[in-house]
Amino acid sequence: MSENILLVWAMLLFAAVIAGKAAYRFGAPALLLFLGVGMLFGLNVIDFQSFEITQMIGMLALCIILFSGGMDTKFAEIRPILGPGVVLATVGVALTALLCGVFIHLLSGWIGMALSLPVSLLLASTMASTDSASVFSILRTKKQGLRENLRPLLELESGSNDPMAYMLTIVLVTVVTSAGEGVSLGASVMKFVIQMAVGSALGYGIGRLAVFTINRINIKNNTSLYSILLLAFVFFSFSFTTLVWGNGYLAVYITGLVVGNHKIVHKSNLTSFLDGFTWLAQIVMFLMIGLLVNSDELLRPEVLILGCTVGAFLILVARPIAVLVSLAPFRRFTFKARMYVSWVGLRGAVPIIFATYPIVEGVENGRLIFNVVFLVTLISLIIQGTTVSGMANWLGLAYEEKEPLFKVGVPDSIKSSFSEMEVTDSMLAGGCQLRNIAIPDYTLVIMISRDNAYFVPRGSTELAVGDRLLVVSDRNEDELQAMYDTLGIKDVMKIK
Per the domain annotation, does 449 fall within a domain? Predict the structure, then answer.
C-alpha cells in the first residue's frame, strides 16, 4: 500500500514538473497547470477529500513561500515604494473584500440564493489577497522588466497582503459561526492591530536572532545542517508568533526579509536549497488543492453563475477601484502604472487555502464558498495570468531585462562587489586599450566576454564596442554605483 502511494506521488510530481516546464514555455502561470494536474488525477486515480490535511499542508507551504519571498526581496528596492505597498496590502485588501462582499450579497439575492451579508463578506475576504508569484515567473522567463518600480511594489503587496485577508477570513468565520453574538467591530479592529504589531515585532526579532545564530553557530563538520537550521527558524517564527496572538504569516515574511537583507554564512547554498524547497511546497500544495475539487459540484449552475459573475466583477471593478483609491495619495505613479497594478492582481493558492477554513469550522454554505473561490481563481489565472506580459507591453511599461553573462560564486565573508558592464563608444573616447578606460579606483577588470569567448585581460588589451567586462571592487555597492554615475558609465549590472 505504501509503495502504491509513493508511486502515485512520484507520478504526480513528475507530471507537475513537466506542466511547469510547459507553463514557462507558453507564458502561462505554473499554478494553473499544477492545479490541472491535481484535478486530472482526482477524477479517476486518487480519492482525496480531507480539507483538514489540505489546510495543514497549505499552512506549512505558505510559511515556506512567504519566507522565500521575503528573502528574495531587497529592502533597498522596496524602500521607495514602502508606503504604497503597505496601503495596497491593507486598505486595498479590505476595500476589495467590502466591494465584492456587497456585490455577492446583492447578486445572490437576485439569483435566488440569498446569501447573508456576513457570509458574502466571508466569501469575498477569502479571495481578497493577490498572488503575484506567478506574475514574476512569467516576467523573468520572458526577461521582461517593469518601469516605475512596479516589480518591487507588486512583490511587497503580494508578500504582505495575505495577513490582512487571513485576519478578515478568521474574524468573519467567527461572526458567521456565532451569529454575531459577542463579536464587535471595535474588538475585531483592535485584535487586528495587535496581531499585526506583534507579528511585525516578532518577525523582525526572530529574523535578527536567525542571522546571529547562523553566523555564530559554526557547524564545520556538516554545512548541510545550516539548511535545517534555517527551516527551524521559519516554522518557529510562524508557530511562536501565532502562540502569542500575533500574525504568523506576517512574521514569517518579515523574518525572511530580515535574513535576506543581512550577510549570513553559506547564503548562496541556503538560497538554492530554499528555492528548491519552495518549489516542492508549491507543487504539493497546488496538487492537493486540485485533488480536492469535485467537478460535479464545480459545474453546478449556481456555482458557475456566481463564480463567473464574481470573477468578472473582481477583475474589472473591485480590484481597479481598490487600487485607484489606495494609490490616490501617491502621485508618482502614472495612470498606466495604476491600470497595470489593477490587472495583475492574480488570485492563486492562498485564497483557495483560506476557503478551506469555512468548511473546517462548519460554516453553512462552506462547500459553496470553496467551489466559488476555486472557480474565480481559475478565471483569474486564465484571463489575467496569460496576459501579464502582453499587458505590460501594451501599456508601454515593459523593457527587456538583461541577464549577466558572468556567474560569480564567492563566500559571503569576502567583502567585495562584482558588477558587469558593456563597453560603449563613449568609454573608448580616450583610447581602445583597457588602461585608457576611465573606471573607478579600487576596481579591477578580471575577465572579458567577446563573441561567446572569455579571456583574462591585461592593461594593453584592446577593447571593442559590445565587450562585456567583469569588474570586482572592495567598495560597497552604493559607493561603487556613485563612482560609476560620476564617470557617466551606464548599464552596470550588479552580480553580487
Answer: yes
- Give strand pairing partners of 2: none
Is residue 118 a part of any domain in this protein?
yes
168 with 44, same domain: the answer is yes
Give the pTM: 0.85
Domain check: are 356 and 449 in the same one? no
Residue 152 lies in a domain: yes
Query: Is position 411 within any domain?
Result: no
**What SS3 class is residue 454?**
strand
At 341 the pLDDT is 94
Using only the alpha carbons of the chain, give its radius of gyration: 25
Domain boundary among 352, 367, 400: 400
Quick one: 134 and 238 in the same domain? yes
- Per-residue pLDDT tens digits for 42-55: 776 677 778 888 99
Residue 115 DSSP label:
-
pLDDT at 437: 82
Phi, psi values for residue 447, rounded to 5°:
-160, 150
What distance in Å separates the CA atoms of residue 317 and residue 381, rounded to the nearest whole number? 17
Residue 77, pLDDT > 70, answer yes
Contact 233, 249 (CB under 8 A): no
Of 378, 391, 376, whose CA–CA distance to 313 is shortest? 376
**pLDDT for 131-144, tens place per residue?**
765 666 665 556 67
Which pLDDT tens digit goes with each residue over 280-291? 888 888 888 888
Other beta carbons less than 10 A from residue 281's beta carbon:
20
Q: Which three cell numbers stand for residue 419?
A: 558588477
Q: Domain count of the chain?
A: 2
The CATH code of the domain that includes 470 is 3.30.70.1450
Look at residues 108, 116, 123 and name the one whose alpha carbon lies nearest to residue 354.
123
Q: Measured between alpha carbons, how far is 349 from 59 in angstroms, rounded to an integer?
A: 11
Which SS3 state, helix, strand or coil, does residue 354 take?
helix
Cα separation, 171 vs 168, in Å, equals 5
Closest by Cα among 30, 25, 279 to 142: 25
Spatial contact of 423 and 450, defined as CB atoms under 8 Å apart: no
Give me the domain span that covers residue 457.
417-494
Quick: pLDDT tens for 347-389: 888 899 999 999 998 888 899 999 999 999 999 988 988 888 8
Mean pLDDT value of segment 267-278: 88
In this structure, of 251-265, 404-418, 419-433, the range with the lowest mean pLDDT score is 404-418
CATH number at residue 147: 1.20.1530.20
Cα distance between residue 402 and residue 145, in whole Å: 9
Residue 422's DSSP bridge partners are: 468
Q: Is 10 exposed, middle or buried (0-12, 13-18, 19+ CB in 10 A)?
A: exposed
